[in-house]
Each structure stands twice: as C-alpha cells, then as structure tokens.
Amino acid sequence: MRLLAGWLCLSLASVWLARRMWTLRSPLTRSLYMNMTSGLGWAGGGRRRQEEPPVVCVQQRETLRITPGCLCTQLYHSFVSSVFSQFMSRTSINGLLGRGSMFVFSPDQFQRLLKINPDWKTHRLLDLGAGDGEVTKIMSPHFEEIYATELSETMIWQLQKKKYRVLGKNEWQNTGFQYGIISCLNLLDRCDQPLTLLKDIRSVLEPTRGRVILALVLPFHSNVENIDGKWDKPSETLEIKG
C-alpha cells in the first residue's frame, strides 16, 4: 500500500508540475506535458489497435480538462495496465477497464456510406472483431439480428452486456445462413490468416445485395496480438503496397 500511495503521489505531483509549466507557453514544456498525459491514457483508446488512427478520419475539436476525479481514474487505469500487462493483452485490459473505444463513423456517415435512409433496415449484421461493441451500436438500428466475433474474453463480456450474439472464431462461417452486411474494421492487420478471412467473408455474404465494410490502418503492418500481450507475425501475408 505504501508503494502504491507513493507512486500515486509522484504521478500527481509530476502532472501538476507539468501543468504549471504549461503557463510558460514553452513548446518543450507543452510537448512534455502532452507526452505525460498521453502515457496516462488521455490520448484515447482504439478499436482493435489503440495506438493507431482508423482509416476513416473525422476532425473533432476536443478540450482536455483535468479534474481530480478524472486524474484519479486515469492514474488507476495506468496502474492496472502496468500490472495486468504482464499476463494480459492490451485489448483485454481495455475491455476489463471499459475503455479502448475508437470513433470510426457516426450514424449519419454510416448511412451515407451505404446510401441508405435512417429508416432502412435489413436482416443480419456481422461485425468481425467487434471490440467493445461501440461501433456495432452505431450500425445496429438498421438490423433485425446482430452478430459479432471477438477473441478477447473481456471484450466478449462487453459485447454480451450490450445483448449482441457473440459467435466463435470458427462458428460464424458455419451458421447455415448469410449476412446482409459484414464489417471488418481494422482487423486484417491483426489476424493470423487474413486471406482465409476474406475468403470466408465472401462465402457467407449475401451474393447480390450483400456489402462488406472494410477499414485498414495505414501504413499497413501485420501483427497478431497473443493472449499474453506479445506480438507475432501472421501465418498468411496480405500484400499491400503504396
């Protein structure tokens, strides 16, 4: 307990000092301050890959506000991440803490992407690698049945809390029915067999009206996150150049 209390006091003092230095309007102190706060988690999370932005980018104006409650929460998240990262993946830690969501598109942007109106509805959605389900929630009003896949147990827990039906890694291809929309957002660079995944998507997509919503993190780098947080190269190579 003494060690934790000392660590919290040191972190609080460091952020307070950096914030005071901010008033000097020095580019160096501003850079140090932003690096410090991003290390504590204020830079935001992500869907599938928290450290990189999605392909679909939307400009947003956000104000960083530091309050005692916010600061304590972020310090707690930082402490938990440091401890659990020894045996859990970053995705699972984010699922446990209820963070790690990434903005991909708004409801209006989703409708414009598919050229549909707000009342449009079809039968089935499959969201592959759905994370915590926040992007799934944007799409869900347009579907009667919503299915999702996810490998992280804590993210599965988040999906089940939202009442989505979670299918297993080798289950969604063998349900016996097809999907009107399949989303694969920032997943191809995180899976072990991207070529097989694309073939399986085609096999279960409605052949005439079905659509695939695909997003990639660029520049494209393939790495597979293991359950213990370590990264490996995928067994299949997806060649993307330029």
TrEMBL record:
Key words of the record: Signal
Record has Ligase as a keyword: no
InterPro entries: METL9 (IPR007884), SAM-dependent_MTases_sf (IPR029063)
CDD domains: AdoMet_MTases (cd02440)
Signal peptide location: 1-18
GO molecular function terms attached to this record: protein-L-histidine N-pros-methyltransferase activity
Protein name, per record: Methyltransferase-like protein 9
Annotated source species: Eschrichtius robustus
